[in-house]
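Field log, afternoon session.

UNIT: design team B
ACTIVITY: writing a sequence onto a fixed backbone
BACKBONE:
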């Protein structure tokens, strides 16, 4: 029988489940984290947990928070088990280990207007406000600017005391802190975005400027927004993950499985102090950009290389894609010949070595990371992870055929059916527009590239656009595997 997870039952868990060595009752909050998904709990929360296990950072505990209805359901699940989480590391060799983390000690009530969130963010003890709100959640325009015209931003500018976005809540709390003399907090993005701290600054300061320019200037001057690179493959939790936790003897309503690899590279710019995450393995550096470019273009971009064709061919997981000879060969050729040349080395890692590393990580058969999850929100991920490399390749007159094929597979996937005739359920916030464009592009491929909010002027770049047209026509005429063979034969 599995033991229900709670503070009261930690001593009852099996001996092979690692549990916190610190007294949870002695912790005090220093961080509010908005967006309590699996990635945060397997990554940032774990680094802090390991510091606490070493007797450090006991005044930096995490309060969870969110602004969506789904966050309220997550709050209920986590509070029922005292905000503890079971992390299960899955080694490619089949080895498994389980660890209960306790660095999160509470979860802010999720309410319309976000009054509880604003109140907690305004607490003097809170010195860092961190976020994992997905790559597409930062209200950017197609050219990367602040989207002041988005309905959420228009609402928050008109109702600054009852905002509906996380950024509106941050601005409201910073106004209160300034007025009450409590000082700023560090705003820390933990999402997969190039220059994520700079983008977070743009959103927070841009929103504040819509209603209170003096506050915007105060935030811009006094708050810090460190850039960072985050990395750990963390699948979604479903019935098999719940069962895996039970196999370890733990009844956890929200366990997390993950690969046995983590990386966190951070700029050391914290206006109100920080935990010593480096003592748990994180890296502080002035060269975050080099690390994040390597990771975003090769790992996140690599995910987009294989996920869409995997969906088209009914290949269920990323590991299964890597076991498919054509998809694996396509992955390596695009990565090594078309993406890696635009990535510079970082200490102890060349782009080619990094491709080999992520090849092994993607191929881990124990990580059941679905192609559907990885293909989700392509309307954010392709512009962020793939298209910057296309632009670099066009400028430097280097190959783009494989990158054009990546985009053709995305267009084919968004049509909404697999080659076996099964339907692909909507898998993007912009699914309706994407599907309409994809169906038009079946007869006129260039229609896909005319989506300027994603592609900008790339539809006018003949070398890329012509290759895209040819690939999409071939995919519809001869099938995805024929297109893969044709590319691999080049």
């Amino acid at each position: 029988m599995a033991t229900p997870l709670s503070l009261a039952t930690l001593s009852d868990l099996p001996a092979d489940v690692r549990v916190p060595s610190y007294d949870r009752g002695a912790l005090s909050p220093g961080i509010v984290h908005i967006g309590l998904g699996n990635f945060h709990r397997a990554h940032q929360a774990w680094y802090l947990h390991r510091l606490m296990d070493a007797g450090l950072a006991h005044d930096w505990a995490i309060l969870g928070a969110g602004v969506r209805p789904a966050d309220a359901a997550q709050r209920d699940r986590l509070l029922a088990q005292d905000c503890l989480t079971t992390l299960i590391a899955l080694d490619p060799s089949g080895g498994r280990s389980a660890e209960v983390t306790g660095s999160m000690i509470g979860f802010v009530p999720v309410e319309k207007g976000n009054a509880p969130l604003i109140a907690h963010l305004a607490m003097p003890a809170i010195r860092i406000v961190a976020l994992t709100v997905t790559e597409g959640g930062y209200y950017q325009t197609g050219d990367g600017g602040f989207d002041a015209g988005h309905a959420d931003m228009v609402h928050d500018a008109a109702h600054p005391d009852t905002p509906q976005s996380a950024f509106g809540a941050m601005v409201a709390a910073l106004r209160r802190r300034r007025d009450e003399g409590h000082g700023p907090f560090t705003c820390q993005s933990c999402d997969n975005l190039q220059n994520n701290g700079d983008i977070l600054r743009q959103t927070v300061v841009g929103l504040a400027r819509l209603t209170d320019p003096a506050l915007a200037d105060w935030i811009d001057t006094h708050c810090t927004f460190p850039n960072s690179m985050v990395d750990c493959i963390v699948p979604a939790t479903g019935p098999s993950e719940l069962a895996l936790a039970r196999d370890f003897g733990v009844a956890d309503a929200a366990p997390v499985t993950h690969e046995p690899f983590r990386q966190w590279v951070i700029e050391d710019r914290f206006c109100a102090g920080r935990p010593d995450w480096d003592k748990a393995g994180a890296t502080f550096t002035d060269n975050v950009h080099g690390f994040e470019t390597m990771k975003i273009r090769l790992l996140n971009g690599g995910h987009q290389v294989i996920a869409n064709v995997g969906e088209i061919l009914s290949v269920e997981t990323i590991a299964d894609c890597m076991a498919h000879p054509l998809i694996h060969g396509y992955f390596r050729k695009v990565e090594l010949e078309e993406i890696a040349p635009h990535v510079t080395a970082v200490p102890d890692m060349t782009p080619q070595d990094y491709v080999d590393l992520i090849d092994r990580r993607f191929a881990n058969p124990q990580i059941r990371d679905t192609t559907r999850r990885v293909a989700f929100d392509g309307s954010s991920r392709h512009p962020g992870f793939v298209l910057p490399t296309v632009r670099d390749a066009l400028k430097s007159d280097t190959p783009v055929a494989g990158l054009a094929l990546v985009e053709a597979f995305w267009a084919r996937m968004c049509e909404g059916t697999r080659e076996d005739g099964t339907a692909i359920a909507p898998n993007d916030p912009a699914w309706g527009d994407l599907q309409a464009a994809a169906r038009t592009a079946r007869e006129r491929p260039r229609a896909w590239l005319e989506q300027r909010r994603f592609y900008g002027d790339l539809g006018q770049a003949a070398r890329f656009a012509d290759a895209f047209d040819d690939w999409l026509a071939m995919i519809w005429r001869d099938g995805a595997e024929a297109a893969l063979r044709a590319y691999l034969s080049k």
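LOG NOTE: The two ends are 57 Å apart (CA to CA).
NEXT ACTIVITY: expression trials, pending approval
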